[in-house]
Write a structure and sequence with these properties.
The chain is built from eight helices and 18 strands. With 324 residues, it is an alpha+beta fold. Strands 1, 2, 3, 4, 5, 6, 7, 8, 9, 10, 11, 12 and 13 form a 13-stranded mixed β-sheet that branches. A three-stranded mixed β-sheet has the order 15-18-17. The protein has a two-stranded antiparallel ribbon with strand order 14-16. Strand 17 and strand 18 form a beta hairpin. The N and C termini lie far apart (43 Å).
């Protein structure tokens, strides 16, 4: 392992050939991946502004970002606004409110926001020791400390959760789709990007309840089930393989399995931090199956061109797909 190679990459001094050679070695050398991620992370945090000073009464907790080690264009933003305190008891005491209404109407006076940009993955340890992996272009918001009665966070994007078990203090996740996820101690993947009409929850272990505002329905999800819930529909599927495929992104894999082109484009934009446009609507009729690890955006597009009869052009971060 050559630290000079890592410094050359991080300083932007490497030639294109040197970069290709370096990232080829990164894909096969775990120690090199760890050292590269460590040095990249140190540089990111060194560039951040000073954090706001915390109150002495506020409990401390760990914050760490795990950067993807197989991408050549990496940038991380950790945004932490000024922290305040969290009010829950007064809202919970209101009479006549459903559980959904009680939790969804809870608004913290101060909050912490973790945000990862496109092309970035993040790893966070919450105050209760719950672990969260954030996929590209995701945002997780939580209070400075959890309430004595419950733990409430908001997610816009995709996250893989390993929730600290506590039956007496449920863990709630608010989503943009007005579906509330209720957890006591569970491992699952949740996809609820703002632009989606529904949420996709893939349960690995434990038990999850979904509270739907539009119908007041409580949906219980069992292990190895994927549940898709929107304002007017619900789909449940069971498959060990399918559940495992939903979370491979946190291990650095970009996987497509008969994926429609519109979904593939959306995921590639987040994964590589690019903008993709299509100049022929017939392109959306295609589906794609492949798994990528350390491949660049060029290599992915080359394979797409070879297998799908689609050509591409690139100008900076803009990609245009056309029919051959």
């Amino acid at each position: 392992m050559n630290n000079k190679d890592i410094d050359r990459i991080l300083n932007g001094e490497a030639t294109e050939a040197q970069r290709e050679d370096f990232f080829a070695r990164v894909a096969c050398d775990e120690l090199l991946r760890e050292e590269y991620a460590k040095k990249k992370s140190e540089r990111v945090f060194a560039s951040l502004p000073n954090m706001p000073e915390m109150s002495k009464a506020m409990p401390s907790f760990s914050k760490k970002i795990s950067l993807p080690t197989l991408l050549t264009h990496i940038a991380a933003i950790l945004f932490i606004p000024l922290c305040g305190y969290f009010i829950y008891e007064q809202i919970a005491a209101r009479s006549g409110l459903t559980e959904y209404e009680t939790i969804s109407s809870t608004e913290p006076v101060g909050e912490i926001t973790y945000r990862v940009d496109r092309g970035v993955k993040g790893h966070i340890v919450l105050p209760d020791s719950t672990e969260v992996w954030l996929n590209s272009d995701s945002r997780l918001t939580l209070p400075p400390k959890f309430d004595q009665q419950s733990r409430i966070v908001s997610l816009s994007g995709e996250g893989y959760f390993i929730v600290k078990s506590d039956n007496q203090h449920p863990f709630y996740i608010k989503t943009p789709q007005e579906v509330l996820v209720k957890v006591t101690g569970t491992e699952f993947n949740l996809n609820c990007y703002q632009e989606r009409a529904d949420i996709h929850l893939s349960l690995v272990s434990g038990k999850v309840q979904l509270l739907q505002e539009s119908t007041d329905e409580v949906i219980v999800v069992q292990p190895n089930e994927e549940t898709i819930v929107g304002k007017s529909h619900m789909i449940m599927e069971s498959s060990d393989k399918q559940i495992g495929d939903k979370s491979v992104w946190k291990d650095g894999l970009l996987k497509f399995d008969n994926t429609p082109m519109d979904e593939m484009i959306m995921r590639m934009e987040r994964w590589y931090g690019v903008h993709i446009t299509v100049d022929d609507k017939d392109i959306y009729k295609a589906v794609f199956t492949a798994t990528f690890c350390s491949e660049s955006i060029i290599q992915v597009l080359d394979l797409l061109e070879f297998t799908s009869g689609i050509k591409y052009s690139i100008d900076g971060n803009n990609v245009v797909l056309s029919k051959k």
